[in-house]
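Lab meeting, item 3. Inverse folding demo.
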């Protein structure tokens, strides 16, 4: 990249825009704190359909993540991000038009368009403006911004939705805030075809698919933390909601801190950064399975798992930008995004089924034990793989 031609302060503008993009990402969980209220408001709707308000955007995101990798060959990233921000704001406010569950579900599905775009394209955006260790550092910042956006959106939703869950829809105005920030700050870099005057094909090599497979495993196991931690506390700690909230907050805070420290972490762990992150998750899950009544050790586990999610996801996205040519970066990031989305969608059903087969019942202790062993084995395999490759 030609540093000389960049206007002064352009990198700062990109980083600010990345934080704006995280607001669009965080809107995925705007309904999570009020799902029980939504269920009470629509008593004739099944619990599974209520839960789809959170999972539906992820399913739609998988499709549009792949489409974005192709569209980015023809349309500048700034225009695509602006479209995504507008979609997130509009679809977020749509349920205010009518008190209809059908409209609400449709709006959440359409929001998945925006979600798929931002989570797949932000990696290519970073690759456009940052190189080397600086790229790793900014990918860590991006990962931290996602955690911060999630905490902001869920905190606002929990506050404004206490009296009436309908108020949380107004939080989607953050999508328009993100639109304004990117409109004025995000540089509009020409697409690669405009720069080169040639029509290059998207080429993904074997290493991209291997990295996607390992990221699939990371996503499959890491989602177990948030989906089981509240129920895990129902036994020894008697379902203490304050304890559950504290542990989840520590998990999110660890993601933010580790994201900001990603450059230093990779300098220490080098080529084994990703499998080390998996080993941290394995340690966290084994602690949770062995000491379910120890609140202190559960907090330690939350830090270890937060480290794993932040470092692995951001590190993998940074690494994939070095494996392909610039015009193929959006599609490579989209492949990794799809691997992560699919893994987290299928994880609960698969791991609960395996737990019943192994232990004759589904228990969170059994789930975390299997998770610790499973991700530990994957970490060992990835360590061997990285030893054998340059």
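The presenter then showed the designed sequence:
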């Amino acid at each position: 990249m030609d540093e000389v031609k960049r206007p002064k302060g352009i990198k700062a503008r990109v980083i600010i825009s990345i934080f704006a993009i995280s607001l669009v990402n965080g809107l995925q969980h705007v309904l999570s704190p009020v799902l029980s209220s939504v269920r009470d408001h629509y008593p004739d709707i099944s619990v599974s359909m209520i839960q789809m308000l959170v999972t539906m955007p992820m399913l739609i995101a998988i499709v549009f993540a792949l489409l974005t990798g192709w569209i980015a060959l023809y349309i500048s990233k700034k225009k695509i991000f602006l479209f995504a921000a507008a979609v997130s704001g509009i679809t977020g406010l749509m349920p205010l038009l009518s008190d209809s569950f059908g409209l609400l579900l449709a709006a959440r599905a359409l929001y998945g368009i925006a979600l798929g775009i931002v989570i797949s394209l932000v990696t290519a955006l970073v690759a456009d403006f940052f190189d080397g260790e600086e790229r790793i550092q900014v990918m860590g910042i991006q990962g931290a911004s996602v955690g911060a956006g999630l905490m902001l959106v869920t905190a606002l939703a929990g506050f404004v939705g206490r009296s009436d869950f309908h108020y949380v829809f107004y939080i989607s105005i953050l999508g328009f805030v993100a639109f304004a920030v990117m409109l004025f700050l995000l540089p509009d870099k020409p697409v690669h075809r405009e720069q080169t005057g040639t029509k290059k094909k998207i080429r993904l090599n074997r290493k991209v698919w291997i990295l996607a497979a390992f990221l699939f495993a990371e996503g499959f196991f890491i989602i177990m933390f948030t989906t089981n931690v509240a129920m895990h506390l129902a036994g020894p700690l008697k379902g203490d909601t304050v304890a559950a909230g504290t542990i989840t907050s520590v998990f999110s805070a660890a993601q933010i801190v580790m994201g900001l420290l990603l450059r230093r972490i990779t300098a220490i762990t080098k080529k084994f950064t990703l499998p080390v992150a998996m080993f941290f998750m394995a340690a966290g899950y084994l602690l949770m399975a062995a000491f379910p009544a120890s609140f202190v050790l559960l907090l330690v586990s939350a830090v270890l798992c937060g480290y794993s999610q932040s470092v692995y996801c951001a590190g993998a996205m940074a690494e994939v930008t070095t494996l392909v040519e610039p015009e193929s970066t959006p599609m490579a990031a989209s492949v990794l995004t799809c691997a992560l989305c699919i893994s987290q969608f299928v994880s609960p059903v698969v791991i609960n089924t395996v737990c019943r087969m192994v232990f004759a019942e589904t228990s969170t202790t059994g789930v975390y034990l299997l998770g610790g062993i499973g991700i530990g084995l994957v970490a060992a395999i990835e360590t061997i793989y990285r030893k054998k490759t340059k």
